[in-house]
Amino acid sequence: MSKVLISFIGTGPLVNKGAQGEEKSAREYRRASYHLGEENLGEYSFMAAALYETQNIDKVILIGTAHCMWEEVYRYFQEKNGGVIDEDVYCEIAEHCEAATSKSDLFIPHVKEIEAAIGKDAHLALIRYGVNEEEINENINIILQLNKLLSTGDELIVDVTHSFRSLPITIMNLLLYLKNVSSKNIKISHIYYSMIEMNKEYGYAPIVDLKKILKLNDWIVGAMAFKQYGNAYQIAGLLQQEDTDVTNRLKHFSDVMNLNHLYAISQETQSLRALMKKDFDSMLPEMIVKPVVKDFLNNFKGTEQNPALFQYQLAQWQFKHMNYAAALISLQESILSYACQTANHNPFDKDERQSIKDVICSDKEFIPFELRGVYFEITKNRNVVAHALESNFSSGKIIESLRTSLITAGKYIK
């Protein structure tokens, strides 16, 4: 596991040059004293240097356009690490980068020399300006390739101080993608931004840690998992320190949802209603937990005393969220519960449910003929799916049959 610094390189401040007062890059970084909290990291010419020297970095990945000040990166690290600056190399890099524009190829001379000057397994990633969709897509592909440079369990420290503001925004989202999707279990521990513009007022550049973005991203991922699958494990984990009771409720609810334990789901859904009255200490649970729970509970209004209707509504929710196997089970059981309720049998008693099932199979008039047909159709498709039976029905036909069955069953189960 390595601590990896991913930092953006800029072009330096603009100054007035020429008779027309045209603004151009001065090709030099403005030195600043960087402060991380109460700690003075020292004076550096760019943020990556400050983090490189103070954060025990194992690997460095620098990102920038061909116009960025790569010559200053070469100069700084060559001097810092006790190397001798090759003036020819420095000048060639400077001349090339100063002349580069948004139309230039993704190339700068002496990349290997710059990486060697930095050391620590350094890698330079050249990107486009991102002025149109084509360039944005190219940048996405370039950044996603950085995954190949990372190892399992790596910790990323991301610095978004320099470069065009649009590029860090784009690339931050890609890094979040890598964090959530990569099989390498990558951790982003810090997202640093140095407020260089505050140097005049404070006499130093305060470094702020935007890692709250990571927490917000975790909440968003958790909310989406709940909305799509009824899976509240991530939200429960995020609430662990704030409220263990809510955490346990959400975990248990997720367990029974994943088991499709219909009776337990009904009970746990009622338990979830208590969360709507809960006052959370922090804003994120208040803004995320309650809305997603409320959205889920809205599907089951008026079902508290009607097991058949609850199971039917659950089948509807499962179908909408493409959990078709669970929807087949829930719809089949909802019809059986409907028949139990119609015959004044206990829908939660195993023996009574079995006796009603036998009657449905033997008595064509026990429940509406159309609903009886839906029951047999659903049972057949459920058996095909659950028992890996050969069938002339494709998956698409089974799903379409389920859709039609839900519409038909809805005429009776109310």
TrEMBL record:
<dbReference type="InterPro" id="IPR011742">
    <property type="entry name" value="CRISPR-assoc_prot_TM1812"/>
</dbReference>
<dbReference type="InterPro" id="IPR013383">
    <property type="entry name" value="CRISPR-assoc_prot_DxTHG_CS"/>
</dbReference>
<protein>
    <submittedName>
        <fullName>TIGR02221 family CRISPR-associated protein</fullName>
    </submittedName>
</protein>
